[in-house]
């Protein structure tokens, strides 16, 4: 709970939070103001078209300033050519980019994308998304991870989700998830999740092998929370449901319900199972066998979240109805 204090700030858990700043420049120190002069950012951007040592120096400074100064991030919206200049050393067809330079520039794009007004600016630049996608495939693991994080941040805007999906980002994101590097997997998963809020992108993710990769990771107990959330989202797409049935999702999901202590994960599992049941009667036998052996869904129908109870009960009712019809016949 937050309550207001007499000083104009606010209290959270008994700790006074700083008073909100109406004008962001009020939070800028005198020493930082020099970085906000138009001449300074222009000099850094100019250096990006000079020697490699100049490029590396400028990129490192831009990465640092966009990380620590929100007001510096905002400057990019006031310079129409700033994004193309920033990305110039990474332009397709240029000589192989130095790994440190690539990492600093991609991380600068990530930092810039945090600023709401820059999200559209970056996504609509004709080379920005393609270069982020290229950086998902090459460079240091930090570069690849930060490229995924930048796509996640940019995809907060609905039009950007469509731009990113159409540009072919999902395949390299799924590949990055599949590779299993701890540093990059979570960034890749959160980007896939956000991008797939656009229904068109669900089909793209399925076509690029998302269901298979996700089920493998869940079976290996990797990023189970995040990946179940993606799987639950994809289950609204018919092709995803069909593929889940073919790839053994039923047993995988029932295992999670049995073994997990996380109620939200159980809820996602049974919601996906419900969708599979409604679409594929051939899976009823497997679920009925599990129920006879372990009573997994009966327990969930008694003790799960409200949604989990409703979905588990729905599956059980469907199974019981089918069984009674068989006996009647």
Structure description:
The protein has about 325 residues and is mainly α. It has 3 domains: about 1-30, no CATH class; about 35-210, Leucine-rich Repeat Variant (Alpha Horseshoe), CATH 1.25.10; about 215-329. Helices cover about 70% and strands about 5% of the residues. It is built from 21 helices and 3 strands. It has helices at about 30-35, 40-45, 50-70, 70-75, 80-85, 100-115, 115-125, 130-135, 140-155, 160-165, 170-180, 180-195, 200-205, 210-220, 225-235, 240-245, 250-260, 265-280, 285-295, 295-305, 305-329, and strands spanning about 1-5, 10, 15. Strands 1-2-3 form a 3-stranded antiparallel sheet, with no helix packed on it. Strand 2 (about 10) and strand 3 (about 15) form a beta hairpin. Helix 2 packs across helix 3 and helix 16 packs across helix 18 (about 265-280). The longest helix is centred in the last third of the chain and has 23 residues, at about 305-329. The protein is elongated, with a radius of gyration of 25 Å. Mean pLDDT is about 90; it is low at about 1-10 and about 10-25.
Number of domains: 3
Radius of gyration: 25 Å
CATH class of the largest domain: Mainly Alpha
Distance between the ends: 60 Å
Shape verdict: elongated
Average of the residue pLDDT scores = 89
Low-confidence stretches: 1-8, 10-26
Enter the CATH topology name of the largest domain: Leucine-rich Repeat Variant
Q: Can you give the helix content as a percent range?
A: over 70%
Helix and strand pattern: EEEHHHHHHHHHHHHHHHHHHHHH
Class from helix and strand fractions: mainly alpha
- Supply the CATH architecture of the largest domain: Alpha Horseshoe
Across the major sheet, the strand order is 1-2-3
The major pleated sheet works out as: 3 strands, antiparallel
Keywords: Repeat, Ubl conjugation pathway
InterPro entries: ARM-like, ARM-type_fold, ARM_PUB, Armadillo
Protein name: U-box domain-containing protein
Domain U-box: 41-216
